[in-house]
Amino acid sequence: MLSFGREPGDDHAGEPAEAPEAPEAPEEAPEPRAPTLLDQMGGVSGIVASGVPVVVFVVAQAVAGNLVASIVAAVVSAVAVAVWRLVRGEAVQPALSGLLGVAVCAFVAWRTGEAKGFFLLGIWTSLVYGGVFLLSVLVRRPLVGVLWHLVNGEGQTWRRDPRVLRAFDLASLAWVVVFGARFVVQRWLYDSVYADTWLGWVRLAMGVPLALLAAAVTVWAIRRSRAASEAPASTGRRRSTRSSRA
Fold first, then answer.
1. pLDDT, tens digit, for every residue of 11-20?
2. Positions of the region Disordered (predicted)?
């Protein structure tokens, strides 16, 4: 017997079949961020930790007044910092570099037989660093800009922009002032009768505070460089918009 009714399941007969949904494209993994200069130094914690042995030496010398005890305390603190960063899974290289520096300073102090010998390497290192930064400005390759763009893999085309070049000149000169001031003041103290009393404390006072001032100028120069690199792209977009409207 013929049946003119609809069979079960024929409610959607004659309607176009829905196309299967296209699978969503997998999200692209973000490109790994290039390590910055601050990352290479172990971050803020790495910079702070590197100054711990110097603080320990100055305090121990002020309290105990014994060169051997102060050297041992500084070396032990440097080892403790390295172990602490290793346990926390942080970069150990900055701590190991700091440990090596403390060991050299301790050796110099032991050889000279005077507590002020602990700071002799840092004094002459400041002179070398200041000279290198100054020379980089004179040859029109300011070291702050060279290092920043080298670490971030951005090339050296930034030197074609006079504004960016001038900003990194100022940042490099800020570090020249910091290192130059450290050398002049601490070298004078080293040869004065105030060395045993004030040299260590002046070293601390001219450490992080002055570095923060130079770092502020460096950050300003980096932001100026980024703004200059983004300016051509925005200018190109505005030009294309104007041409399409015309």
1. 555 555 555 5
2. 1-35
User: Contacts by 40-43 with C-beta closer than 8 Å and gap 24+?
Assistant: 40/151, 41/94, 42/85, 42/90, 42/91, 42/93, 42/94, 42/95, 43/90, 43/91
Residue 2 clears pLDDT 90, i.e. is over it: no
User: Among positive and negative, which fits the CA dihedral 176, 178, 181, 183?
Assistant: negative
Q: Pick the closest to residue 56 from 45, 43, 69 (CA basis).
A: 69
User: Rounded distance, CA 242 to CA 66, Å?
Assistant: 76
Question: For residue 223, which amino acid is it?
Answer: R
CA distance 224 to 167: 7
**How far are the Cα atoms of 15, 57, 114, 177, 196 from residue 188, in angstroms, in the given order?**
95, 20, 16, 16, 13
Which of 72, 52, 102 is closest to 204 using CA atoms? 52
Distance of CA 54 to the CA centre of its chain: 20
Which pairs with CB-CB distance under 8 Å and at least 24 residues apart come from 32-35? 34/151, 34/152, 34/153, 35/151
DSSP secondary structure letters along 134-169: HHHHHTT--HHHHHHHHHTT--SGGGGSHHHHHHHH
Q: pLDDT tens-digit profile of 122-181?
A: 999 999 999 999 999 999 999 999 988 887 777 778 888 888 899 999 999 999 999 999
The helix/strand/coil state of 36 is coil
Q: Tokens 């002046």 correspond to what residue? A: 202
